[in-house]
Amino acid sequence: MITVKDIKKSEEVKNFLLIAERQMQVLGYTEHSFRHVSLVSANAGRILEQLGHSERDVELTKIAGYLHDIGNAVNRTDHAHSGAIMAYGLLTKMGMEIFEAAEIMHAIGNHDEKTGTAVSNISAALILADKSDVHRSRVRNTDFATFDIHDRVNYAVEKSVISIDKDVKTAELTLEIDTIICPVMDYFEIFLTRMTMSRKAAEFLGLHFQLLINGNRLL
Predict the structure, then answer these.
(1) pTM of full prediction above 0.70
(2) Which CATH number fits domain 4-217: 2.60.40, 1.10.3210, 3.30.160, 1.10.3470?
(3) What does residue 34 show for φ and ψ, rounded to 5 degrees?
(4) Is 197 exposed, middle or buried (0-12, 13-18, 19+ CB in 10 A)?
(5) For 30, which DSSP code?
(6) What is the arrangement of strands in the sheet containing 216-217, beginning at the earlier edge strand?
């Protein structure tokens, strides 16, 4: 069976991610390459593992997390849809069963907040992991004077952790933000849609979504 280790070894995947990152850098977006997809892969798999899902579903979720942004190699617009089709073709070519590859396609195609929502356990875990990755290490712009609101918000976040409590049925996103760099309201201004998507993803998994910023519960 195909595993996330196989995906990480794929030269095709490596090159898709390199091209995607080059395009995102030109467009002025935050980092979407190896660091981001590795973190999303690990966190998405951990979420389902902690909820007691099968070992294979956990592995498929890790694969979906690692591949979810390869559509950025084509274009940022509709990257979830193009990436889903790319992932399906890549996975079936590697020998993955059609149904498993389609499950991953299904999840990747629904991970973007503009067009997607949680439609499966894999997609819900992917959404929670993806939308929780807000951190200053993703900011490439080195000139603070030219930061836009996305740069400021990401740079202000010094710590970001998504945690699951199966017993009390919560998915909790904990952030530590330097409010001198970015007021909390700025975070909500650009991430409200993502937090709404995360809440729906948590609900799909039978969880309540909670948001803590600097020790204060906001959701």
Answers:
(1) yes
(2) 1.10.3210
(3) -60, -40
(4) buried
(5) P
(6) 157-165, 170-177, 208-213, 216-217
Tokens, residue 150: 């996305």
Tens-level pLDDT at each residue, the chain (219 residues): 999 999 999 999 999 999 999 998 898 888 788 999 999 999 999 999 999 999 999 999 999 999 999 999 999 999 999 999 999 999 999 999 999 999 999 999 999 999 999 999 999 999 999 999 988 888 877 777 788 778 888 888 999 999 999 999 999 999 999 999 888 888 888 888 999 999 999 999 999 999 999 998 987
How far apart CA 205 and CA 207 sit, in angstroms, is 6
Give residue 36's identity as a one-letter amino acid code.
H
Give domain limits for the chain: 4-217
209 three-state secondary structure: strand
